[in-house]
Write a structure and sequence with these properties.
With 533 residues, the protein is an alpha+beta fold. It has 10 helices and 25 strands. Strands 17, 18, 20, 21, 23, 24 and 25 form a 7-stranded mixed sheet that branches. Strands 4-1-8-7 form a 4-stranded antiparallel sheet. Strand 23, helix 9 and strand 24 form a beta-alpha-beta unit. Helix 8 packs parallel to helix 9. The longest helix has 15 residues.
């Protein structure tokens, strides 16, 4: 099933809700942009609802006759540096080692960095009876702050990270010799509902016939309630043509998407019309719990047609809904694999063909600006690398160039960016940037643009380490359309069973439409294995 809801005229396919836009806590403009881009490529970003627990130790004692009464506040940093408050803990009285009960819900997004800021305050005794969310922070005593990326927490063993509290730039006191501020410990857990899936098979009997020269073309549409009393669509089945007793393919929903098994769902049965004006055949309201009872009892439920503002005026219909299958399962998430020791390993390959322009001239795509402004290649390396480096424990990344002529050598379509003849790894993202800058001084730009050797080399590494709980991501950055198209296709297909994904980023003003079209030639390969950016 798909991952978004679509009801355009002519759309007869089933559309599911799993991994749809489930929640917005902590969402920001960067994530929205990434998500929209991925959806345009037919994929969904990885996102999970997490619960964040906080505790602290060895806090400063700011009270005279008792101990501090600490409360923690959690913020997310926006791209412009401004802070958005996500939530607050309760106030714990007389404690320098608080273990807060209140958990903060935050959404983990794999595709972006999520900077978090934690501030701890000693709440004045005169405010102890006030709700924590109503407290003015400028009236409380600051105890310290710490910051990190959410990725740092989820990649730690046990998803636990302890950070030293510091004074913070906005709360500097008059004395530079302040005592230690203590530590704050952060732990995240994936909510169980986000991993609990329900698979259902629906069957209807005796549906009304609304077509003149054939039978109705029914499909089901399921809605969930929202706060304002409205219902929003969650998923729909495929359309069954000319069938008054349809049996649909399985639908899979997450408990989190529904809210809970007790949430009332509205289930509508429609007669499909090409115009998009689908005709309501019947309606009912049932929770997942109710649907499970129908499955256990093997009984059906009659549809009704709403005829007034009250359910007492609804018209009960002959048509019934049966639940032929109802099963729950736990879906292992990306974070489960990370928690069990899997690593992501970053690899990068950079285009050194002459079409990039003379690196010494400002109009070159390889120009290194003395002011420190990053060129397009550097931005691509940094944007992808800064996300992935948290998931690699040794942070040693293979880095290659292609389409260039190293010193005293022929044109190479896979040479080590660090200039070594024996190994390609560099230390961290900064190491990639340094090796890239050095290669621009020692490699002559040439051509043509060939990807095959780089992909084969990356695939060889992934194959050798396939049993070591490592997954590789190869980033290829290029300014032009590839000239070894068939060889590249063959290399990607050969690597499709390996723990390897390939991201191709185009920079500059070249026309990449040919590559865009040819990305559809890989129908047998999971879309996440090959993405043209």
């Amino acid at each position: 099933m798909g991952c978004c809801f679509s009801d355009i005229a002519g759309g007869q396919q089933a559309v599911g809700s799993v991994n749809a836009d489930k929640y917005t806590v902590g969402a920001n403009e960067a994530y929205t942009a990434v998500q929209n881009f991925l959806k345009s490529r037919g994929v969904e970003g990885l996102s999970y609802l997490m619960e964040l627990s906080l505790s602290a130790s060895n806090l400063r004692d700011r009270d005279i006759l008792s101990k501090s009464d600490p409360m923690a506040v959690v913020y997310t940093k926006k791209p412009d540096g401004s802070l958005e408050e996500l939530g607050r803990t309760e106030v714990i009285l007389n404690s320098l080692d608080p273990l807060w009960i209140t958990k903060q819900r935050v959404i983990y997004y794999f595709e972006i960095l999520q900077p978090l800021l934690f501030r701890v305050y000693d709440v004045d005794s005169k405010f102890h009876n006030a709700p924590a969310k109503m407290l003015r922070l400028d009236e409380q005593q600051f105890l310290g702050e710490a910051e990190c990326f959410l990725s740092e927490i989820v990649t730690k063993r046990g998803r636990i990270l302890t950070l030293p509290l510091r004074q913070g730039t906005e709360h500097k006191g008059p004395s530079p010799r302040l005592p230690k501020f203590g530590e704050i410990t952060l732990q995240v857990e994936e909510t169980i509902d986000s991993k609990t899936m329900v698979e259902m098979v629906f069957h209807c009997v005796d549906l009304p016939n609304k077509d003149l020269f054939s039978k109705s073309d029914p499909f089901l549409k399921i809605f969930r309630p929202v706060e304002n009393g409205r219902f929003v669509p969650v998923c729909k089945t495929e359309v069954k043509m000319n069938d008054l007793n349809p049996l649909w393919k399985p639908l899979t929903l997450s408990i989190q998407q529904i809210g809970s098994k007790d949430n009332p769902l509205m289930i509508d049965c429609y007669n499909f019309n090409n115009s998009g004006n689908h005709e309501l055949l019947g309606r009912m309201q049932k929770s997942l719990g109710d649907l499970e009872k129908l499955y256990i009892s093997r009984t059906g439920e009659n549809f009704y047609l709403p005829t007034g503002s009250s359910n007492h005026h609804n018209k009960i219909l002959k048509g019934q809904l049966f639940v032929e299958k109802f099963s729950t399962s736990t879906k292992h998430s990306f974070l489960d694999y990370i928690a069990n020791g899997y690593e992501l390993n970053f690899m990068v390959a950079i285009d050194f063909t002459a079409s990039n322009g003379n690196p010494r001239l400002p109009d070159s795509l390889h120009y290194l600006d003395p002011s420190g402004r990053l060129n397009a290649y550097q931005r691509a390396i940094w944007s992808v690398g800064e996300v992935l480096e948290f998931y690699d424990t040794d942070k040693r990344f293979p880095a290659w160039g292609f389409g260039g002529r190293p010193i005293d050598g022929p044109v190479s379509h896979c040479f080590n960016l660090n200039g070594s003849g024996s190994y390609a790894e560099v230390e961290g993202i900064s190491g990639i940037m340094s090796a890239y800058a050095s290669a621009l001084r020692n490699v002559s730009l040439a051509g043509p643009t060939l990807f095959g050797q780089v992909i084969n080399h990356a695939a060889q590494i992934a194959d050798i380490n396939a049993a070591r709980r490592k997954y590789y991501i190869l980033l290829i950055i290029t300014d032009g359309v590839i000239t070894d198209l068939q060889e590249t296709k063959d290399a990607i297909i050969r690597a499709s069973d390996l723990p390897l994904s390939i991201l191709i980023v185009g920079v500059g003003g070249a026309d990449f439409k040919e590559m865009e079209v040819n990305s559809h030639d890989f129908h047998s390969i999971t879309i996440r294995k090959f993405i043209l950016l």
